[in-house]
Amino acid sequence: PDTCIGTSFYSQIVGEYQERIREKVRSLSPDNPVSTDINQSITGSGELSWQEWTDRGIFDSQGNLVELQSTGRDITERKRAEEQLLFSREQLRALSERLRRAKEEEGVRIARELHDAERTRVAVEQFSRRFPGMTIEDSYAIQRAWISWIGTGLR
Question: For 14-27, what is each residue's pLDDT tens digit?
Answer without folding.
Answer: 888 999 999 999 99
